[in-house]
Amino acid sequence: MIIGGTLVTGTGEPVYGVDPRTGDRLEPGYRGAGADDLDRACQLAEQAFEGYRSAPIAARADFLDAIATGIEALGATLVARAGLESGLPEARLTGELARTTGQLRPVRPGAARGQLAGRPDRPGQLGPPGHPAAPDPGGPGRGVRCEQLPAGVLGGRRRHRSPLPPAARSW
Q1: DSSP readout, 126-147?
Q2: Structural domain boundaries of the chain?
Q3: First-to-last CA distance in the chain?
Q4: Is pTM beyond 0.90 here?
């Protein structure tokens, strides 16, 4: 695992993936984080969240674009491993890879204008309390609902369709 940019070997017993088609154990095994590693990862995530949340939208868009580019660079390797672990066909996983990277990128057109799928009364503000499922009114990213974006794009919150009335929901 990577914590704070450093490769860390967990301390728990290794956990192995299993090929659902054959039942074969997949290497390598992955060791879980110990309490100290978990505390450190949580502290670093909390510190990073405030910096990310206050970053300009264009910087967040660059960050998400870099993540999408990294996922695409893994391409065939990621699809092959996901196929081993899930039993899903290559075509489906290739489509999932494209869908995932596509969901990271709709922020780009609006970011150039300081906007995102956000509120018209607060252009450029991503997220939090009460962020509506509203599309960016202009540009190729329109029509993207907030539940289609990674939760981190929305300040860690994701609106969902709840059967409860608005007054009974806590976001």
Answers
A1: ---TT------SSSTTTT--GG
A2: 1-54, 56-156
A3: 30
A4: no
